[in-house]
Amino acid sequence: MFSRIRIALLAVVTAGLLTGCALGTRHIADIRDYPGRYSNHSVSIQGTVTSSVGGTFLPVQYYKVDDGTGEITVIADGARSVPRRGARVKVKGRVEELAAFGNRSFGLHLRQEHLNVDRW
């Protein structure tokens, strides 16, 4: 009886730890496949910058991040600069979309809240 309780407790703790890890960083494919689940919520992603547009005098600054499961645009309003192509980044941002029709999302992006760039 005692060993069954220990096994059950171990299973619950292990599941909790695995769930906690999964809640940290999201795969871009999950965000793209289930935008309604993440809409207006902050999430963290990490990956490689594939392109970026930014500058001090541009009204909109953005970059695209690919994590191997997909690519998403990150809008960096008010940022002094955006990471360059090839940079490894971890981004926390709010999931937003321009429009949604049925199960289709248009203009899905992250609005940057925090950015970490890996230094090589």
Structure, explained:
The chain has 3 helices and 7 strands, in the order H-H-H-E-E-E-E-E-E-E. By secondary structure, it is an alpha+beta fold. The protein has one domain: Nucleic acid-binding proteins (OB fold (Dihydrolipoamide Acetyltransferase, E2P), Beta Barrel), CATH 2.40.50. Strand 2 and strand 3 form a beta hairpin.
List the helices and strands and how they pair.
Elements: H1 2-24, H2 28-33, H3 35-38, E1 42-53, E2 62-66, E3 71-75, E4 88-96, E5 99-101, E6 104-106, E7 109-117
Parallel strand pairs: 3-7
Antiparallel strand pairs: 1-2, 1-4, 2-3, 4-7, 5-6
- Return residue spans where pLDDT drops below 50 for at least 5 consecutive residues: 16-22
Helix proportion of residues, in percent?
Answer: 25-40%
Principal-axes geometry comes out as globular
H-E string: HHHEEEEEEE
Mean pLDDT: 83
State the CATH superfamily name: Nucleic acid-binding proteins
Key features of this structure:
5-stranded mixed barrel, two-stranded antiparallel ribbon, 7 strands, alpha+beta, OB fold (Dihydrolipoamide Acetyltransferase, E2P)
